[in-house]
């Protein structure tokens, strides 16, 4: 938890002007979902480079390499790494942050909620700036 808070503090300090989103267009919603889906697909195929590429430049700088990223996902976010099913909610703005919430069923049938913080790059593409994974009491049928 301390490590996550430290990483979050660094990310907030480095985030710059991309924070503070007012609204999302339909195109933004499609692009946000696409970025998260691309990362989930890449993780499913152990494609560390492609998964790492969906993170913000600041996040990539903190993590260091695609191999470090994949190791972190395996260790700390295993339900995302080896998911059985995903259900996307519509992206939304909460306190100026673009958020993509995804319901994830892991390989054992446990249900999780993954909250992805998104940032728009200077080139207008959407990147993942962090993820919080919350276990629910639900079990997939």
Write the SSE topology.
Elements: H1 2-15, H2 26-44, H3 48-53, H4 57-63, H5 66-76, H6 78-81, E1 83-88, E2 92-94, E3 97-106, E4 110-120, E5 126-139
Structural account:
The protein is an alpha+beta fold. The chain has one domain (2-8, 19-139): Roll (Nuclear Transport Factor 2, Chain: A). It contains 6 helices and 5 strands, in the order ααααααβββββ. Strands 1, 2, 3, 4 and 5 form a 5-stranded antiparallel sheet that branches. β4 (110-120) and β5 form a beta hairpin.
Question: Can you describe this structure in just a few lines?
Answer:
The chain has a single domain, classed as Nuclear Transport Factor 2, Chain: A.
Helix content: 40-55%
Q: According to CATH, what is the topology?
A: Nuclear Transport Factor 2, Chain: A
Q: Roughly how many Å is the radius of gyration?
A: 14 Å
**Distance between the first and last residues' Cα:** 31 Å
Structural class estimated from helices and strands: alpha+beta
Order of helices and strands: HHHHHHEEEEE
- Largest sheet composition: 5 strands, antiparallel
Mean pLDDT, rounded to whole units? 87
CATH structural class: Alpha Beta
Domain module tally? 1
Q: Residue ranges: pLDDT <50 for 5 or more in a row?
A: 4-19
Just name the CATH architecture: Roll
Number of strands: 5
The best one-word shape is: globular
Count up the helices: 6
Q: Beta-sheet strand percentage?
A: 25-35%
């Amino acid at each position: 938890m301390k490590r996550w808070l430290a990483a979050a503090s660094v990310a907030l300090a480095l985030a710059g002007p991309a924070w503070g989103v007012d609204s999302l267009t339909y195109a933004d919603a499609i692009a946000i979902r696409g970025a998260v889906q691309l990362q989930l697909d890449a993780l499913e195929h152990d494609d560390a480079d492609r998964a790492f590429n969906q993170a913000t430049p600041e996040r990539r700088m903190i993590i260091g390499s695609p191999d470090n990223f994949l190791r972190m996902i395996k260790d700390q976010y295993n339900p995302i790494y080896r998911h059985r099913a995903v259900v996307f909610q519509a992206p939304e703005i909460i306190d100026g942050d673009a958020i993509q919430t995804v319901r994830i069923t892991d390989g054992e049938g446990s249900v999780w909620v993954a909250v992805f913080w998104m940032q728009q790059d200077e080139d207008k593409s959407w990147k993942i700036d962090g993820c919080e994974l919350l276990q629910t009491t639900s079990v997939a049928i």
